[in-house]
Give the backbone structure.
Amino acid sequence: MFDISAAQQQPEHTSTPTTHSPTTHGCPELDELAAMFARRRQLDAETAALIAVIDHDGLTETHTGHHTAGWIAQTDQQPINQARHQVRVARHLVSPRLQPLRDAFNAGTIGLQHIAAFNRAANPRNLDDLCDLAPHLIELAKVATFDRWNQELRGIAEQLDQDGGYDPATDPTNNQLRITPLTSGYTHITGTLVGELALTIASIINAATDNTLARHRSDRDQLAEVGHDHEIPSRPQAAAEALAELLQRAAATPDHLGHTLKPEAVIIIHPNNPGPDGNPTVTDISGNLVSTTLINWAISTGLTRLLETTPSGDPLRVGFAQRFANQHQRRALSIRDGGCTFPGCTTPTNGCDAHHVTHWSPKKHSGPTDIDNLALLCRHHHRITHRSGWTMHLAPTADPNHTAFAWTTPAGHTLHSQRHHTLLRPPE
C-alpha cells in the first residue's frame, strides 16, 4: 500500500543548491539554459508527485478508460514504454523509505535520471540496504557526474546482491526475449540470457552462423569461376540468416506429440491502390510495403489461405450460428482494425479480444457475430467497455466505407475509435 500522503504534498519551491547554481557561468545564454534545467528538475518532481496521486486514485481509468501510462502516452504524445517508465518512477517515489531521495529530488539536488537509475538498481533483495545508503548517494550526486554516480550505484547494488547470496546466472527470471515490430518494416529482437539457455542458444547460433558464412564463401568461389561476384555478408547479417534458417527447420519438425508449428503472416493485397509498376500494392498487417521476394516466399510455403474482403476490410458474416469470432474473422479483424480500437491504445492484434458491440443474443435476434458488429479490444479496454456507465455503439465516419465505433463515458463524453492506431474522425 502506497504512502500516498507524501506524494500528495506539493513539493516546496526551494532554491537550487549551490552545486547546481545556474548563475556561475558568466555567460547570459549559459545562465539562462542552466536556469531552465533547474526549472525542469523542479517540474519533474511536481509531475512525479501528481502522477503518483492520479495513479493511486485510478483517475485516468475512471474518466478516460486508460491506465495512467496509456493516458500519459496519448496526452503527451510519447512512446508507451516511456510513459510506463514515468509511472514506475512515480510509484517508486511514494515509498516512505525513499523520503531522502524524494526530498533531494524536490530540492533539485538530484534529477529524474538519478531516481530512474536507483529504481533500476533496486530489487527486493537489496532495496532496504540501498535505502539506508540513500543519504550517502545524495551527497555523492552533489560532487560526481551522473555517469560516475550511476557506476558507483550499480557497483553497490551488485555487491549487496552478492552479499545476499544471489547469483544472477542461476536466476531463470533473467531470461527475457522481446520481439517489437517497428514502422517501415523493421523488427527489433532484444533479450537477455543467463545460465544454460545463454550457453545453448549462443553456441547453436554461432555454429549456424559459421555454416552460413561457409556457404557464402563457397558460393563466392564457384561464381568467381564463371566471372561473377558474390558479396560475403557481415557476421551480424549472417547470424540473422542463420537464425531464420534454424527457426524454419524447427517449425517443420514435429514435437513429441507429432504436432508442428503453424506460423501465420498476413499479407494484404490492395487492388484499388496500384504501385509504381501498375500492380496492386501489397502490405503487411502494419501497412508496411511487402517486397515481391517475400510474397513469393509466402506462396512457396504452401500454407497460403485466401481471404477476400471489401475495400474497407469487411468480410465474413456468420450471424447467430456461433458466438465467438472464428479464425477467419479474427484474421479479417486484424486486417481491418490493426490492434485495439480504443483511442490511444497501442496493444497489437495478438493481445486483443473480438468484442460484440451489440451483445450477442440469438433469442432476441440481436448482436450477430458479423464483422460490422465486432471490434478488436485489448483485455483492459474490453473490461472498461463492459463497466456500468460505459456504452459502445456504431458511429458514422467521414469515409462511409469504414466501420467505426464510439464510446460514451460515465461523464457523458464521446470517444471515437481508431483503426491501425489512427483516430477515425466523425463526419463534420
